[in-house]
Write a structure and sequence with these properties.
Number of strands: 16
Strand order of the largest sheet: 4-7-1-8
Radius of gyration: 27 Å
Shape: elongated
CATH architecture of the largest domain: 2-Layer Sandwich
Distance between the termini: 26 Å
Number of helices: 6
Largest sheet: 4 strands, antiparallel
Helix content: 25-40%
CATH class of the largest domain: Alpha Beta
CATH topology of the largest domain: Alpha-Beta Plaits
Oligomer: single chain
Number of domains: 2
Length: 241
């Protein structure tokens, strides 16, 4: 978090039509700043301007309306700015940057940050269960994958994610594929479930009743779990009383 005191104000100027690996250059810069932990950044679009080519760009000219000047601006500590500057220079090779000394008078609301529960990291062993079925498979009149998700939730299984495949085949060796030209397609559906071995084993009898044709695979996995420490928040509140 950016703290009060001396800092650097950085402004990056590019043109709206400039690209970086197929994406707008300003979007690539914003993504880079975000994932490098820059506190805040703002993108503004000009309504008129000209660059090194001395060519006037204005929103009044319809054919140049997508080539307006763009400014990406942020404030950070001197150390952080120095750390990200080489990549930023590379990204803006067709634009230009300016850096000014500045002073942060008031930083982000510390109280609000403290109210946010801290994160707890836990590690351990678990089982990963994969259930492979078809999109058209049913159970009691409803899509099987939806019924399985509801059943897993009702049985307190930690979590499940459903993936819809675009191509595959099952035990009958028939190709299933997702095609906009074929309305009768039966795309493969994959459910991934992670929980303790005991809880998954207890769910197997229910699974036997629901899945008539498909594949279930069970694997050992190492898990890393991140959760909020709400107890820590309550402790802070008690300390303030």
């Amino acid at each position: 978090m950016l703290s009060s005191g001396p800092a650097k104000k950085v402004a990056v100027y590019v043109m709206e039509g400039d690209q970086y690996h197929g994406s707008p250059i300003y979007a690539a810069i914003l993504d880079y700043l975000f994932y490098r932990g820059i506190a805040d950044a703002t993108v503004t679009r000009g309504i008129a301007g000209f660059g090194a080519d001395h060519k006037l760009h204005t929103t009044r000219l319809v054919d140049l309306a997508d080539k307006m000047p763009i400014k990406v601006e942020f404030i950070e500590s001197a150390g952080k700015v120095e750390e990200i500057m080489p990549k930023l220079v590379e990204l803006t090779r067709n634009g230009f940057l300016e850096i000014h000394d500045t002073t942060v008078i008031r930083s982000a609301d510390v109280a609000a940050k403290e109210a946010e529960p801290p994160s707890i990291k836990s590690e351990g062993k678990a089982k990963l269960m994969r259930i492979l079925i078809g999109e058209h498979d049913k159970w009691n009149g409803k899509p099987l994958h939806e019924a399985l998700v509801q059943s897993l939730r009702a049985n307190d299984i930690a979590g499940v994610t459903v993936y819809r495949g675009i191509l595959g085949y099952g035990a009958n060796r028939r190709i299933h594929k997702d095609s906009t030209l074929n309305l009768s397609h039966d795309a493969p559906i994959l459910l991934t479930v992670v929980d303790s071995e005991a809880k998954l084993q207890a769910f197997f009898p229910i699974l036997d009743q629901m899945v008539k044709q498909g594949l279930v695979a069970l694997s050992d996995v190492d898990i890393i779990k991140y959760t909020h420490d709400y107890a820590k928040v309550e402790q802070r509140k008690e300390e303030r009383k």
